[in-house]
Amino acid sequence: MCYIDSCAKKYVTMVEINKDFIKKFKAEKKKKDFEIIFNFYAPKIKSLLVRNGADVTLAEDIMHDTMINIWDKIHLYNPEKGSFSSWIYTIARNNRIDLLRKKSSQPYTDISEIDIPSDSENSQDIVERKSLTEQVKNAINLLPEKQKKVIELSFINDMTQDEIAVELNIPIGTVKSRMRLAYQKMKDNLKDITA
Amino acid sequence: MKNCPDLATIISYSSGALSKSFALLVSSHIEKCSHCKKNIDRCHEMGGSFLEETENTDLDTNSYALFLDKLEASKNKETQISEKDIFDKSSEIPVSLQRYIGRDLSSLKWSFLAPGIKKCSVKIDQKENKHLTFLKIKSKKKIPEHSHLGSELTLVLKGSFDDENGRYMAGDIADHDHTSKHEPIVTSHEDCVCVIATDGPLIFNSFIANIFQSIARI
Questions:
Q1: Interchain proximity B95–A35, CB inside 8 Å
Q2: Are residues A138 and A109 in the same domain?
Q3: Are residues A59 and A124 in the same domain?
Q4: Quick one: pLDDT at residue B44?
């Protein structure tokens, strides 16, 4: 494993942030290890914030707060429950809601911190988890363009169903049905990919 | 769990696009619904996937050094855990709601709304003056048929009610939008306690009920 000189620009890949790396970081909590996580996720988190209307200074601040939360809560991350990226996504989402949209004085209740069992997993589920994010990525790419668009507007552009309806000039009922179809299709695509 | 939020509502919850009142009801439901939890987990994976795919933007010079300074500063801050942050998972109140109403339904201060119906409004956002509406409805009591200008989520906390779509028990969610009309009736022997989030007023189909609604402001 090569560590990054803070003066040097290097793009970190997900290959470096694998299960063993995260396990090691959780156990040892070394700043030089966290720098690898920081260099992969921080530019992306900031990018999403700027895209959704934050100026660059505020985006940098929110991104720093998000990274502090990741550092503080790393002991709560359980790889059995989902990918590292999906866990980071939920933390970034909560910070975005709380600090950028200012729509609430409290972020979402962090359900990842409440121990909620999912339906019991079968062998299919276990296969699904092997490189889940990669498979989800492929499954999303297989979605019909119209369905993919509503999902992107929701997850990337931070839009409500009403805002998506206005943006695409379609009734809100159509937004909902495209979301449902996209989810169902994604779930089916995941089965196809893992089969 | 028999009645769950619409999949579109689950997706909007995962992406952070629901208003706080709606998000609170969805997270309350998920606490007891492993089926929806699994759907939410899949949606979070979509979010994680989009995050990984996002193009990088330049960080400030020395961003990591600045982060480390902030991290050190944050360690020196004492985190105070207030009474409100201590949750009871065995309570009939979902953990997500305990911050706002405590761990016991008896702590709610009910006021008369209509014969057989009591109401309690709980502020959930100091900045934006947002509320959740709790209703306590007597057994066999019927809410007049109504539709909605926006969406409405109803989470049952105690007892049960029926409408055109079936029976809703504790933990179930009724997810209605402007296209749906319903006429809920309490079917449990005990009072039905539910909590409602709306983003538009209810529209009652009777003139009297509409006048009543303009006073009650649900």
A1: no
A2: no
A3: no
A4: 93
User: What percent helix, strand, coil does chain A show, rounded to 5?
Assistant: 70, 0, 30
Q: Which residue has the tokens 């809601």?
A: A97
Secondary structure letter of residue B58 according to DSSP? P
Same-domain pairing of A105 and A142: no
- Among the candidates A60, A90, A116, a domain finishes at A116
* Record: contact B16-A94, CB cut-off 8 A: yes
pLDDT at residue number B114 = 82
A179 lies in which domain range?
A: 119-195
Q: Do B31 and A102 touch (CB under 8 A)?
A: no
> A20 to chain B nearest CA, in Å?
19
Name B217's Cβ contacts closer than 8 Å, sequence gap at least 6: B201
- Identify whether residues A29 and A112 lie together within a single domain: yes
CA A49 to each of CA A96, B12, B98, B171: distance values in angstroms, whole numbers, following the listed order: 7, 18, 31, 35
The 8-class DSSP code of residue B174 comes to E
How many separate domains does chain A show?
2
Residue A71 to chain B, least CA–CA distance (Å): 9
Residue of chain A with shortest Cα separation from B96: A109
Residue B190 corresponds to which tokens in the numbers above?
């005990």
Q: Point out the residue among A155, A159, A182 whose CB comes nearest to the CB of B47.
A: A155
Would you state the torsion angle of the CA atoms of residues A96, A97, A102, A103, taken in this order, to the nearest 10 degrees?
Answer: 160
Are A153 and A79 members of one domain? no
Q: Is B154 helix (H, G, I), strand (E, B) or coil?
A: strand
- A190 pLDDT exceeds 90? no
Say if the Cβ atoms of A64 and B67 lie within 8 Å.
Answer: yes
The DSSP line for B98-124 is HHHH-S-GGGS--EEEETTEEEEEEEE
Domains of chain B: 1-218 (2.60.120.10)
Complex-level ipTM beyond the 0.90 threshold = no
pLDDT in tens, B113-155: 888 889 999 988 777 677 888 999 999 988 777 666 778 899 9
What pTM was computed for the model?
A: 0.85
Domain boundary among A79, A96, A116: A116
Which of the four pLDDT bands, split at 50, 70 and 90, describes residue A124? very low
How many angstroms separate the CA of residue A127 from the nearest CA in chain B? 14
Distance CA A149, CA A144 (A): 9
